Amino acid sequence: xxxxxxxxxxxxxxxxxxxxISDYVAAARAANYPALALTDLMNTFGLLKFYKACRxxxxxxxxxxxxxxxxxxxxxxxxxxxxxIRNEQGYIRLNELLTAAFEADDRNKHxxxxxxxxxxxxxxxxxxxxxxxxxxxxxxxLMLGNDDKARAAAQKYAAWFPNAFYLELQRLPEKPxxxxxxxxxxxxxxxxxxxxxxxxxxxxxxxxxYKAHDARVCIAGGWTxxxxxxxxxxxxxxxxxxxxxxxxxxxxxPEALHNSQEIAKRCNLTLTLGKNFLPLFPTPDGMDLxxxxxxxxxxxxxxxxxxxxxxxxxxxxxxxxxxARLDFELDIIIKMQ
Length: 337
Prior knowledge:
Elements: H1 21-30, E1 35-41, H2 47-57, E2 60-69, E3 79-85, H3 88-103, H4 116-121, E4 127-130, H5 137-143, H6 147-160, E5 165-169, H7 179-192, E6 196-198, H8 210-221, H9 243-249, H10 254-266, H11 289-308, H12 312-335
Helix pairs in contact: 1-2, 5-6, 5-7, 11-12
C-alpha cells in the first residue's frame, strides 16, 4: 500500500520550512508517490506553483493549508488543523476563511487564525478537515487527559465537516508521548465512527537538512542556536519520507494509510491556467461593462481638462488630442480581456 503525503510546509511557510516546491515535487516523483499535498501555514501562496509542478511531473496535486483555529480557553495558543480542497467551491471557501483571518473586523489581531463561528456558520462542503493530530483541539485535549473534551471536540468538527472530518495520527521517533494522542484518537474514532488518517509533518527534504532548518527557525523567531531557553518544536525526523518508511511507521494501523489514498481520491481541484478572470463589476441600468468603462473614463477626462485648462476655448482646442489618447488606451484595455 502506498500512503499519500498529506501534510508539508514549503518555502512559503517562511518561519518553519526550507522546502522549495520544485525540489519537493521532484522528491515525490523519485519516491513514486502518485499524489502529493501542500499545506502551508495560513496561506496558499505556493498553490499555483505547486499545482503546475505536480501536473508537469504527472503527480496529482492536493492543495490546502495548515490553519490555526481559535482556542477560546487559551487564546494565545490556537488549535491547528489541515483543510484540504476538494473542488472549486472548497478553493473559494478556504480563501474566504484565510482572508477573514487577516482582514475581518472580528479577527484576532495578534495571531491570524480562523474563528470557530466562521466554521459553524459557513458552507464547508468543498473542504476536508484533518484534526491536527496532537496540535489540534481533539489531540491537545487527549494529551492533557481530557478525554471527554476531546470527544466533544471531535463531534463538533464532524458537524462542521459532515462526512469530511478525519482524526489525524502522527508519529515521530523523538516524540513517544504523541502515542497518547494516537491511542486516544483511535478510541474516539471507534466510538463515533469517524475515520483516521496517518500524516507526517514534513518541514525539510533530507535528514541532513535539519541544522539548516533549525537555523531558519531561529532566524524567524529571533533566537540564537546556542540559546538554551529557545523552543525546540521540530525534530531531525521531520524530513520527507519514502513510501516504505511512511508505511512502516503506521503498519499497525493500515486503515490510517488506506484513508490517505481515499482522501487523495476525494480531492479533485482543477484550475484553469493561462486565462485571466476579472471580478464582476456592477454597472447601472444593465450597461455593458466596456461602455461603462468608457463612460467613467470620459467623465474623468472632462474633470481633469477643466483643471488643466480653465479657459473654455483653450480646453475645446486641446480636447481632441486628449480624447484620441484616451480612446487609444481604452481600446487596448478592452482588447486585453
